[in-house]
Design brief:
Helices cover 56% and strands 9% of the residues. The chain has seven helices and two strands. The protein has a two-stranded antiparallel ribbon.
Length: 136
C-alpha cells in the first residue's frame, strides 16, 4: 500500500465516525484549526492561489529533491480545513505521487464531491494545480 493510500484510508476511517455531513464539516473545520499560521510576510501575490472564492495562500517549502513540503492558510474556516486535508494527504509525498494525485477521485472517495459547493471544489482544484505545477 502506498503512503498516499494509507493516509487516505486513515481519513476515510475518521470520516466514517460521523453520521452526517454537518458533523463531517465541523470535523474538517477542526482540522483547519490545527494548521500552523503563515507569517504575514508569506501571504503575498506569489503565494496566493487564484481561482478560490476565499483568500488562500500556499507556501512550498524547501525539501529534499523530489519531495513536496507545503503549508497553507485561508481566511475561511472550511477552506482552511480543506487545506489541512490536502496537507495530511500530500505533504511529504514524492513529486510523481503528486502528479498522479486526482482531486476528483479523492473527493469522490471521501464523499466530499456531494457535500462541497462547486465554488469550493474549484478552489480545491486550483490548490492542487498549484502543487502539481510546483512538482512538474
Amino acid at each position: 500500500m502506498s503512503e498516499f493510500q494509507a493516509r487516505l484510508n486513515d481519513l476515510l476511517d475518521e470520516f466514517e465516525l460521523f453520521d452526517d455531513w454537518e458533523d463531517r464539516y465541523r470535523y474538517i473545520i477542526d482540522l483547519g484549526k490545527d494548521l500552523a499560521l503563515l507569517e504575514d510576510t508569506e501571504k503575498t501575490d506569489v503565494t496566493k492561489v487564484l481561482g478560490c472564492a476565499s483568500q488562500v495562500w500556499l507556501m512550498i517549502d524547501p525539501a529534499p529533491e523530489g519531495i513536496l513540503r507545503f503549508r497553507g492558510e485561508s481566511d475561511a474556516f472550511i477552506v482552511k480545513g480543506l487545506i489541512a486535508v490536502l496537507v495530511r494527504l500530500l505533504d511529504g509525498l514524492t513529486y510523481s505521487e503528486i502528479q498522479d494525485f486526482s482531486i476528483r477521485d479523492t473527493l469522490t472517495k471521501l464523499g466530499l464531491n456531494e457535500a462541497l459547493s462547486s465554488q469550493r471544489t474549484n478552489g480545491l482544484m486550483s490548490m492542487v494545480e498549484r502543487l502539481k505545477r510546483a512538482t512538474a
